[in-house]
Amino acid sequence: TEKIICRDVARGYENVPIPCVNGVDGEPCPEDYKYISENCETSTMNIDRNITHLQHCTCVDDCSSSNCLCGQLSIRCWYDKDGRLLQEFNKIEPPLIFECNQACSCWRNCKNRVVQSGIKVRLQLYRTAKMGWGVRAPQTIPQGTFICEYVGELISDAEADVREDDSYLFDLDNKDGEVYCIDARYYGNISRFINHLCDPNIIPVRVFMLHQDLRFPRIAFFSSRDIRTGEELGFDYGDRFWDIKSKYFTCQCGSEKCKHSAEAIALEQSRLARLDPHPELLPELGSLPPVNP
To answer: Which residue intervals of 111-249 are DSSP H helices?
Structure first.
């Protein structure tokens, strides 16, 4: 039977409490990090927060017209009247979203302010059978719903390279050369517990709100399909993560589409071996323990 071992891991910092439950083993609620609800800095990042640099709209309605400048910056406003992503939103290569900001003429309750309004879905931290801690929702989630933001410590790529534990890094890809990451190892929110799924049900979208410094997008997770009550939430960590990590553990997502299980890796290596008569050049598979963060 599942026990509630903490009634709110967010300590009241989110709109909704996020309980922690365990029905698998005796592991206590994780406390090896500090829960924060917004990104933090431990060294100065010099984010451009100058209010006169913000592009903003002059709407006097709820920003539902195509004239809204913030919508135009995002190609169009991608939110429907319920704050969900429109069906035609590109989930494979999501556009940047520019939400309305404090320099806009519109009201705080306009339709182009979803991520800045915080978590609305009821989430739960729970002990999974094979993948340590995971996140699920004790409610159904329609496609396109904002789930939560990937929150942590903003650090430079150089700082990320010297950190011991790289398991909680999220790259803020930027075409201009300067690369930054969010590291949720020491400071983070509920998203640090979201596992990898080879058949993901949430996607990361880059969003701007209080500032428009393109080096520092905020990472917002939205549901990419309807999600059943109690179904584990997960996103695709990407091949780069697995290129590094598959030496140490393999994927336990259990999906028919799994690309990173021990079996899938072995199949891929035998396929490459057939193509390449020099198997000694292939990476060493070794005996891979299962993942258990």
So the answer is: 157-162, 239-245
- The Cα 43–Cα 153 span in angstroms is 10
The pTM (predicted TM-score) of the whole model is 0.91
Domain residue ranges of the chain, discontinuous segments joined by +: 3-54+72-237, 244-281
**Residue 282 pLDDT > 70, yes or no?**
no
| Residue pLDDT, tens place only, 38-67 | 999 999 999 999 999 999 999 999 999 999
CATH superfamily of 3-54+72-237: SET domain (2.170.270.10)
Rounded CA-CA distance 171/79 in Å is 25
Asked whether the predicted pLDDT for residue 221 surpasses 60, the reply is yes
- Count CA atoms within 13 Å of residue 79 on its CB side: 25
Q: SS in 3 state form for 181-208? A: EEECCCEECHHHHCEECCCCCEEEEEEE
Residues 56-77 as b/e (b if ≥16 CB within 10 A, e otherwise) read bbebeeebbeeebbbbebbeeb
